[in-house]
Specification:
This protein is mainly α. The protein contains 10 helices and no strands. Helix 1 runs antiparallel to helix 2 and helix 1 (5-31) packs antiparallel against helix 10. The model is unreliable at 112-117 and 127-192 (pLDDT under 50).
Length: 230
Amino acid sequence: MYPGLCTVFLSLVVSATIATVFGAYSFISMRLSIFDFRWNTLIFVVTHISFLTIMAAPLLLLLAMVLWCVCTSHRRAVACKSVYVLMLLFTAAALAVSMAGAIIVIYGASHKGSFFARELKKAWNSEIRRQTTLPCQIQFQLGCHGFEEGDCQKGSVTQNFRRCGTTCLPEHLPAKPQFNIERYPGCRAKMSDVFIQWNAILLAGATVAFVLSLVAAFFTCTSVSFEKDK
């Protein structure tokens, strides 16, 4: 039995638990379109950091095994060389996939303004068309606060105000545009199916890692305890 495996697997259980909880929250919030940009960006980052920890755990386990092999007989060292190679390949592949996912999500979060702009504008336009009987200013306030005053000159907002017989003037726009899902429940942005599917994969991976690490920790720690009793 390699020493320290119980501690490694217990830390793996903690990381897997964090990733599963955050992944579940992120998936449910996106699925129901109940999300806040800043909070979900944090969720994405924390989830992927936890997931990277899960994927890095085999590397820590590998190093522990190598150090143990160096301190033991030549025969045992040779026996664990095959395990060394397998763990190295698995860790490299797992870290590559997880790092790629983290880079993609962090890149998307950092560019969320341009990435989600089309979805927000679609939701806002849909809400405006649904409330054509209200004054323009009220219509805008019930929609997504995602436009700057400069959008009026660009003509991207003006056409939506023609339905109520006026033009898009600066005084119709809020002083500080912002998106508040709780204050404006009618304005919900539909998340991209790609992000939902990716988060589902992340949640599934975190759940599997949690179950496997829990089983491994149980058998490893109980076997260590059993050896101590003997």
